[in-house]
Structures are given as structure tokens and as C-alpha cells.
Automatic annotation (TrEMBL):
GO cellular component: Golgi membrane
GO MF annotation: an example: pentosyltransferase activity
Protein name stated in the entry: Glycosyltransferase 61 catalytic domain-containing protein
Membrane topology designation: Single-pass type II membrane protein
Region annotation Disordered: where it falls in the sequence: 120-183
Biased composition (Basic and acidic residues): 120-135
Length: 572
């Protein structure tokens, strides 16, 4: 054996001994760290055996969000307290949706509840103060001759529901609910910050005492102070004349569960309460004040919602029956009739009033479900079985002339030379149909007539609301009377037309085309400074500038408008 071999083996043994000592030190450090971690956090879980859905449910903790809202005028300060996740928040669109699938008469019933747990000491002082201001800001309005209310009883039993992630690209929809018990420690939620409407949105064991028009929420008196809110559920906030025709509904909390109204009928679906008083009976207000906001409010339930109506007119229900049936699978409750019968209806949740945006418009960025005006017009075409989703195009090979519908008014803002306008439109290349919109007309018949046309022409007025039945890509022409009314014409019909995907043309008449020239001297302020007269109020504007004039269109001046309307229909 060579001396060098023995020396090499000795060197190798020393090297292996060093590696073993190093490994021993590393393992020892790891064990010491692990022991320290477990001793400092005994509830920590090192290895999880839960499936992904269970882990997601455990990780999901409900939160209370306080939104401080101020009015544009700075006169009021309201807080929106949101405990249940409000689906459709566009900034947090990848949210969680609870679902339990059950099959009953081809209907998917889904439980939708959130267990709210507030740990003592964790609620911030700011949240406490904000919640107190919610209570302080509500219930100040004097009760009118007609009043109504709802009751919510909150139960302690927790429900553990499986959780399903919703695709971020789809607007959130809340399906029909069958929750029979909730543990939501909060008072009714009311938001008074919107310029058009006040709205309350709350959940729990909700009891509607119809005879007092009241929704009452029974809460744990140790967890929440009593609160009371009064709401007129119609989106013409600030219009005293209109809102005086709307039943006031009370939403309040109580800690006396035994004294809460006893249910005569329990519903497994949410309630949405609103009024069809106000200015309904005029097609513009029927849609802008009720049907469009109603769609925006209840579409998330996919028919699984109970409509509760105040100030019901039977003819209105008959006229819009098809649309109401598409929005809810349940016959609406007439609040007055239910009250006369002493009924108490109980729900898992309720919304009092409707989510209204601008006139005839649903703004996607404000909609809780990411809805927009085109979604509503598609809903109309589907509900009324309107066949056309696109207008006739020039040069499409069919040889058909585009169809123009002229709305003829019967009482005010008359188009005095209607025959001359019809001839000019036919000379340009339109097939012309003349129709006088009437409140008694069947909505299905009107919808089918308008949908068969490619352009619509009319003087500023409620009849232009029918443009919503036109196929997208059609053209709407509004004739604006004299008097600086361009802004209201654009707000009521111009902006909605664009939101519906229509081409919009606004024709503003000259003094020579107005009958006002025969009523006032040439130098009168009505001609020299008509917008200055707007300071006298809308009633004066309506009486003098809208209902007080008729129109004789200058056909030569108007012909380019007709040509533009036809050009809009050129094949693309």
C-alpha cells in the first residue's frame, strides 16, 4: 500500500465529517424555528387537507364597507352601509357568489346569504360615527296621509354555503333566493345620496306589514340601535307635485322580535317595492320612471323576485303585463289590497325603490350588475317578440325602401303641414307611415309597428319614447320647438337615442316655423331671449313654449335632414 493512499482516505473522511456537521446544524435550526412558530401560533395549520372549495369558504370573511357620500350641493351627507356583497361592483368584479343548486319545476333555486360576524373591539371609531349618522339622517320627513312599511327579523343560525367564483367578464347576477334564515347583524340600509331617488336595500327575515306599509327589521338590540327610514319609492326626488302622489314606505328596525308582525305568507324570494303613481300614464314616465329602473333593479334575480307595488292602477298592469311577466315569475302584490286584507308578507331580503340613472338610460358604470341601455332594449325586443335587430339598408339587394314612421301629435305641438313633410320624405326615398301614439294603445302592437321601421320622426314629446322599439342602427329625428329647448330635447331623447345605438338628428325650428310668431310681437323676449324665460320655472316653459305652440316645418330647410336620415341607412 502506498503512503499517499492512506493519506487520501483520511482526507476524504475528514471532508465527509465536515458535511455531516453542517447538515446537522441546518436541520437543528429548522427544527428550532418550527418549534418557535408552533409555540407562538398554536392555531396555525402547517399542512391543509381541505379541498379548494372548503379553503375558499374558510378564507372568505364578510366585511362591512362604509361609503361616505355627499350631495353635489353639499347640503346633505349620507352613508351607504353595505354588508352583503353588492354584485356588479365594477372595480371588484371578480367576486364570490353563493349557490346551492336545487331543481323544482325547471327552476334553479340558489341560496344567497352571508353570515356577518362582528368581533368586539374591531369596529373602528370612524365606522361607529358613520353608522350613527345614518340613523341621525333618516326619518326626518313628516309622514304624509299615505304611509307604508317593511319588517326584517334577523336570526342567529349560521348557514355554511359552498362558494363559486364568478367570471370577471360577466356582469354579476343574483339568482332566485330561497334563504329562510339569515344572520346579518345590521339595520336596514338606506342610501339618500342619489339625485333621483332614495333607496333601501336590506336582508334578513324581512316582514312587510301591508296595512301600515312598513318593512320592519328585527335586530339584536345589543348589536344595533333602532333606526327608522322613510322613503317614497319613485325616482322624481325633489318634485313635490309628483312625489305627493307616491305612497310613503317606512323601513325600520326593532329589537322586539316577539312584537314584530307575524307572517301570514312567507316567500322564498326577495321583494322589490316601488310605486306606479307619480307621473305614470305618460309613456315617457312609464319607462323612464318605472320600467327602465325596474329592469336595472330586478334583472339580477332572473325572474325570482316578488314585485310589491304601491299606487296601483289596473290598466297600467294590463298594458305592461308582458314586460312584468318577463321580470318576475310571481304575480305582483298590490300593497293597498294586501293592507286591506291585513296581510303580512315575509321575505329573505328586500329593496325599497328603484335604481334609476338618467332619463331612459342605464349607465353601465353605475349599474350594480354592469347593465347598460342596449341590454334593456334587447330585453324589450325579446319580451315583445320583436323580430328585427337591424334596419333595412340601402343597396342591400332587396329593393325595399327604408320605412319612416312619423309620429302625429293630437293636441299640442301639432305638425301643421304634416302632408308636405310626408311628401318630402317620400321624394327623398322613404316609405312613410303616420301614426298617432295613444296611451291606450297595446304596447305589443306599438312595439311591432315601430320595430318594422328604419327611422322615426316626431316633434319633441312623449311619443318619441317609442324609439326604444327601433332596431339598433335605425335613425331618430327630433323636431325641437322654438324657445331654447335644445338642452331638454337632448337630455330626454337625444342622449337616450345614442345610448340605444340609434343615429340621432336634432332639427331646431326657426321663429318663422313656430305659431308663436302669431301670438307675440317681433321684439318680445320670447324671441330675443327665450332661455331667459326658463327662470320662470318648468310650468311656465311647458305651458308657453311646449304646449303653447304648433309647428309648420320649412320643407326646403328640412329636406337635408331627411336626406341625412336616409344616408344613415346606406349599406355598410
Amino acid at each position: 500500500m502506498k503512503p499517499g493512499g492512506s493519506s487520501g482516505r483520511l482526507h476524504a473522511l475528514r471532508f465527509e465529517s465536515q458535511r455531516f456537521r453542517l447538515l446537522t446544524i441546518v436541520v437543528g435550526c429548522f427544527l428550532i424555528s418550527l418549534t418557535f412558530l408552533l409555540s407562538s401560533r398554536p392555531d396555525a395549520t402547517v399542512f391543509s387537507t381541505l379541498n379548494p372549495r372548503e379553503s375558499l369558504e374558510d378564507a372568505r370573511m364578510p366585511a362591512m364597507k362604509m361609503l361616505h357620500r355627499s350631495s353635489s350641493a353639499g347640503l346633505t351627507r349620507d352613508f351607504h352601509v353595505d354588508i352583503l356583497p353588492q354584485q356588479g361592483d365594477r372595480d371588484t368584479h371578480a367576486h364570490l357568489q353563493q349557490s346551492v343548486d336545487q331543481t323544482a319545476e325547471k327552476t334553479e333555486w340558489v341560496k344567497d346569504t352571508v353570515i356577518i360576524q362582528e368581533v368586539a373591539g374591531e369596529r373602528s371609531e370612524e365606522a361607529e360615527e358613520a353608522a350613527e349618522r345614518v340613523t341621525a339622517d333618516s326619518g326626518d320627513e313628516a309622514a304624509p296621509a299615505v304611509s307604508s312599511s317593511f319588517t326584517v327579523v334577523e336570526e342567529k343560525k349560521k348557514q355554511q354555503l359552498p362558494v363559486k367564483l364568478q367570471d370577471a367578464g360577466e356582469p354579476a347576477r343574483t339568482p332566485e333566493q330561497t334563504v329562510t334564515s339569515h344572520s346579518v347583524d345590521r339595520r336596514p340600509l338606506c342610501d339618500f345620496s342619489d339625485f333621483r331617488t332614495d333607496i333601501c336595500d336590506f336582508s334578513g327575515d324581512v316582514r312587510m306589514a301591508a296595512n301600515t306599509s312598513e318593512f320592519v327589521v328585527v335586530v339584536d338590540p345589543a348589536a344595533a340601535a333602532a333606526a327608522s327610514h322613510k322613503v317614497r319609492p319613485y325616482p322624481r326626488k325633489g318634485d313635490a307635485t309628483c312625489m305627493g302622489r307616491v305612497t310613503e314606505i317606512t323601513v325600520r328596525t326593532t329589537g322586539d322580535a316577539a312584537g314584530a308582525p307575524r307572517c301570514t305568507r312567507a316567500h322564498g324570494v326577495p321583494a322589490v317595492a316601488f310605486s306606479i303613481g307619480g307621473y305614470t300614464g305618460n309613456i315617457f314616465h312609464d319607462f323612464s320612471d318605472v320600467i327602465v329602473p325596474l329592469y336595472n333593479t330586478v334583472q339580477r334575480y332572473r325572474g325570482g323576485v316578488q314585485l310589491v307595488m304601491a299606487n296601483v292602477a289596473s290598466w297600467w298592469l294590463v298594458k305592461y303585463d308582458k314586460l312584468l311577466r318577463e321580470l318576475s315569475r310571481h304575480a305582483p302584490i298590490d300593497l293597498a289590497k294586501a293592507g286591506a286584507a291585513g296581510e303580512v308578507h315575509c321575505f329573505p331580503s328586500a329593496v325599497v325603490s328603484l335604481r334609476a340613472h338618467r332619463e331612459l338610460i342605464i349607465e353601465r358604470e353605475r349599474s350594480l350588475d354592469g347593465l347598460a341601455t342596449p341590454d334593456f332594449t334587447r330585453f324589450l325586443r325579446r319580451a315583445l317578440s320583436l323580430p328585427r335587430d337591424a334596419p333595412t339598408r340601402l343597396g342591400d339587394g332587396t329593393g325595399r325602401r327604408p320605412r319612416l314612421l312619423v309620429i302625429s301629435r293630437g293636441r299640442t305641438r301639432l305638425l301643421l303641414n304634416l302632408d308636405a313633410v310626408v311628401r318630402a320624405a317620400e321624394e327623398v326615398g322613404f316609405e312613410v307611415v303616420v301614426n298617432e301614439s295613444d296611451v291606450g294603445n297595446s304596447i305589443e302592437q306599438v312595439g311591432k309597428l315601430i320595430n318594422s321601421c328604419d327611422a322615426l320622426l316626431g316633434v319633441h314629446g312623449a311619443g318619441l319614447t317609442n324609439m326604444m322599439f327601433l332596431p339598433p342602427g335605425a335613425t331618430m329625428v327630433q323636431v325641437v320647438p322654438w324657445g331654447g329647448l335644445q338642452w331638454i330635447a337632448r337630455m330626454d331623447y337625444g342622449e337616450p337615442a345614442a345610448a340605444m345605438g340609434l343615429n340621432y338628428i336634432q332639427y331646431e325650428i326657426a321663429v318663422a316655423e313656430s305659431s308663436l310668431k302669431d301670438k307675440y310681437p317681433a321684439g318680445d323676449e320670447i324671441f330675443t331671449n327665450p332661455t331667459g324665460l326658463h327662470k320662470r320655472g318648468f310650468a311656465f316653459m311647458k305651458q308657453t313654449l311646449m304646449d303653447g305652440q304648433d309647428i309648420t316645418i320649412d320643407v326646403t330647410r328640412f329636406r337635408p335632414v331627411l336626406q341625412q336620415a336616409l344616408h344613415n341607412l346606406a349599406a355598410k
